[in-house]
Amino acid sequence: MTAKSAAAAARATVYGYPRQGQGRELKKAIEGYWKGRVDADALRATATELRRTNWRQLAEAGIHEVPTGDFSYYDHVLDTSVMVGAIPERHRAAVEADALDGYFAMARGTQDAAPLEMTKWFDTNYHYLVPELSPDTAFTADSTQQVAALGQALALGLTARPVLVGPVTYLLLAKPAPGVAADFDPLTLLDRLLPVYAQVLTDLRTAGAEWVQLDEPALVQDRTPAELNAAARAYRDLGGLTDRPKLLVASYFDRLGDALPVLAKAPVEGLALDFTEAAAANLDALAAVGGLPGKRLVAGVVNGRNIWVNDLEKSLATLGTLLGLADRVDVAASCSLLHVPLDATAERDIEPQILRWLAFARQKTAEIVTLAKGLGGGTDTIAAELAANRADLASRAGSALTHDPAVRARTAAVTATDGRRSQPYRERAAAQRAHLRLPLLPTTTIGSFPQTTELRTARADLRAGRIDSAGYEDRIRAEIGEVISFQEKTGLDVLVHGEAERNDMVQYFAEQLTGYLATQHGWVQSYGTRYVRPPILAGDISRPEAMTVRWTTYAQSLTTKPVKGMLTGPVTMLAWSFVRDDQPLADTARQVALALRDEVNDLEAAGTSVIQVDEPALRETLPLRACDHPEYLAWATEAFRLTTAGVRPDTQIHTHMCYAEFGDIVQAIDDLDADVISLEAARSHMQVARELAGHGYPREAGPGVYDIHSPRVPGADEAAALLRRGLEAIPAERLWVNPDCGLKTRAWPETRASLENLVTAARTVRTELSAS
Length: 772
Known about the structure:
The protein is an alpha/beta fold and 772 residues long.
């Protein structure tokens, strides 16, 4: 096919779409099902209607080929485990008794069976359920869900393409099941897994699929020759099937690198590449292998992870370059639109001109359709869209919001000394022990406590004008008083105020900093039914006034025990926001760090002796390629130190991280120079404690003994067992006892019971230590 005919054949597609619905109908239906207010048929009906609505929106926008299989009740990787029969033994009976309840048991756990481990999906804030595999895993095909979704789309008269997690990525994401040797490599199961994928492909072909997309984002990471050979074997075998749909192998989030020639040679009909995060690298690599003659190329030129309008002319130039490199070039977003909110037009509180800078999922589909039209018919066919796009880009570039001379002057004046504590850790630790006088194995929580119905009602009443700010603040005081009282009675050693005044750990701060925009309906799935509204980091950042001092000092006035000041760190403020793309991330991080430094210093001046600066996203934002790690970690750790280094030696700085693979960044954790770090460890069975010990981490640490992402209440014996395992790696004088994460999403009954058990466990182990 010539470049001209390839352009004429250009089509618009997407890899996935937000699942929740405009009003988060899916979240409400699932949580209603968990609470017994919604039955299974009603839940399935809601899901069916949401899929239908999504597909119709996409088709009406001009998307030529809609995705199926991207919808999930909880997580698409968990759906893949169901599809291939990789059900943990502890959940098998529940799944056999009731497939839906068993599915949710794997995701959330039960009182008798722990859930699957959860961690971040590459470098996003989406969490997936980690497959558990062993040498004895016997895969079996169950394509029921995938076939049903395809059938629903085809019945609507749509052209549909099922989207599956690819077999290589699935195995590379998996971990050894509990009790299996840590050095077991799930990739050794590939030959056992491929026939199951072959059966699913056959089932989908029989159901009417012309194309099936197999997502292999793990191949954009550094891969060994053995792993690349596994990818080659996988697609040789799947491509060699006689009765199958056409195969589109998709990668995203970074450059494909050494995997590109492997996939280019594979007997598959198409590749999908990211031309936003790694446009130049993927273009060069594609040209180096001689393009994709005879194949379909799906070009991800619209950023699927951020919310800024596309530069249409720049994307058209990229698409034009690609025309001579493939038999057919189609237009798409760089990845699933799962990572962005649904519709920017729902926002009523953002200035109309600024709103035109933004593109959520519905606006991105329109951009994709416009680009496909321009590629196929020429720029004259989209002249009006191009003119409007140029005006929007110029408006943003020239806005005073994006450039504050005072902020830029302050960041330019930062020196290396600003990021160093006045004394080394050993001297600080002695001063802090003398000042705080904490027991061995001190107990604390991560920060947030359950947000009660009364509190949520008060917040809604304030927004609606049914109560005034004074009435709302009375509710906040009451909540803080209850949280402090409970912690004192339970026997926790370092308390928190519970964060009753906060809607979200990033949004709360973003709403008080200049340069940020907040949305009302910009919900994005984080995990399961947990949705967040990432704020938009649109301009230069500064702090007009103190943000947390008032409520922290009020909580401290209610107790003689230390109350932690609680802040969200600069890297997490970036990672859990939609960041600006018009300057380096390091520059933005430094601006946020200086604003937070002012807050840290004000907390200390108000008498706060323990200050926690959370950085759960430090690992999450780590670039996918090792060669890019040093630059990122240098500015990320500098930003944390810039935030925290201005305090006295006897002020104890904590940080917190959760739900990520920490082994890759232990040196960076050390480089933060925090006095205490708390980390997720319950689901991973204290793995992080062993990693810290292996590194020789010299400071204090609290690997979690209570998994807060499950409704089950761990017994005191279970928490004590985890604590003893932590002591095998971390000396008692440096070990803290805490949950994995904040308690905002939990209910009070399970929170009370779990924390009481946590304190009991700490006391039990203290007694054991004193007797030994």
